[in-house]
Amino acid sequence: MKTNELFAEASDAGWIETGPGTRRRVRLSLPEMMVVEFDFKAGGIGALHHHPHIQSSYVVRGAFDVTIDGQTRRLTAGGGYIVPPNLIHGVVALEDGLLVDVFTPRRDDFLPAVT
To answer: Residue 3 — very low, low, confident or very high, per pLDDT cuts 50/70/90?
Structure first.
């Protein structure tokens, strides 16, 4: 295992635009787990979706309406949630905010394509 797979330094690099007012970057990744930051501008939407991964999310800053399996809760900095596999979920940013998500196993679709 390489040391650079175990640590993430503070940086502004690596952001990928994912839609109007939203972007993400992978911070750490092993096959068994992945840590991803999601940055939202007020009004940004993480559209309803599902995936086979377990997801745990922590609200670093901002306020979000979070919907999981048809239930919506308003969460602010310090709050968090867990999404079991295959449940439909999404978020709406009520103000500028940042989520840190952990996926297990890793979301290979978030990794750069190898050509």
So the answer is: low
State whether CATH 2.60.34.10 applies to domain 36-107.
no
DSSP state of 114: P
Say if residues 97 and 74 touch (Cβ distance below 8 Å): no
Which string of b and e fits 47-58 if b means at least 16 CB within 10 Å? eeeeeebebebe
Nearest-5° Cα angle at 17, 68 to 105: 50
This prediction's pTM: 0.93
Q: How far apart are CA 29 and CA 8, in angstroms?
A: 10
Report how far residue 9's alpha carbon sits from residue 55's, in angstroms, rounded to the nearest whole number: 23
Phi, psi of 101 (to 5 degrees): -110, 140
How far apart CA 18 and CA 4 sit, in angstroms, is: 25
In single-letter form, the type of residue at position 32 comes to: E
CB 42 within 8 A of CB 94: yes
How many whole angstroms from its chain centre is CA 108? 14
